[in-house]
């Protein structure tokens, strides 16, 4: 889905499926075709936003398959640069032209690979310029969580975004709070812990930056067993789901838990 989707979407919860590089191109297409009826049903639910974020190679084909279903398309990363001599990179502008509405930026797997706070801020700028809504991932490592210093850690990650977000206060974006230790581990913070952390993030975005056009998602080991409990996060604005979203039936179950 492309076009003028920004008018009302921020008021709905977003369920975003980060398929990472779990599947090949052919496997991704096969899965989407197999579950197309279910995807149509998810996309037709006007009370939520659903986005598929396949690997870059599959964006065009997945976009064609889900065209006119109401499902949004998103990418997992973009270049920090304008069009130019950047071998192997993909411009935010190209992602928009491919039909993407969203792009994940600053996922902990990208941060671990090479993305610094400065690069992440540049990527967010590119996403805004291209008309994409970034899903900006922030989250603390386990040692920081154990020391009870999550909020200080996240505040530093947000401070690194302060200048770019302040310059784009009318643009829509999403923050995905993803504790690094929760990703792919089967472990999660409790809903009250997540609610507290989300409230701290919201406070920073509203008072220090002056943003209002954002959603705060939770991500990290969400699955069909814990989704019901995790929906008790206050306020609940959506999930970024990795492994469990590969099975579209399970992804649908996670989504239905909150309806
Ligand atoms: C993620 O990597 O964004 C994620 C949430 O992964 P998982 O659901 O597999 O923990």
- Biggest sheet: strands, sense, closure? 8 strands, parallel, barrel
Summed up, the domain count is 1
Principal-axes shape call: globular
* Strand content bin: 15-25%
Poorly predicted regions are 1-8
Ligand kinds: phosphoenolpyruvate
What integer is the average pLDDT? 95
Number of helices: 12
Please provide the count of β strands: 8
Report strand order across the widest sheet: 1-2-3-4-5-6-7-8
For the CA atoms, what is the radius of gyration?
A: 17 Å
Cα-to-Cα separation, first versus last residue? 22 Å
CATH superfamily: Aldolase class I
Helix content: 40-55%
Q: How would you characterize the overall build of this protein?
A:
- This protein is of the alpha/beta class.
- It has one domain: TIM Barrel (Alpha-Beta Barrel), CATH 3.20.20.70.
- It has twelve helices and eight strands.
- An eight-stranded parallel barrel has the order 1-2-3-4-5-6-7-8, surrounded by four helices.
- Strand 2 (49-53), helix 3 (59-66) and strand 3 form a beta-alpha-beta unit.
- Helix 1 (25-34) runs parallel beside helix 3 (59-66).
- The model is unreliable at 1-8 (pLDDT under 50).
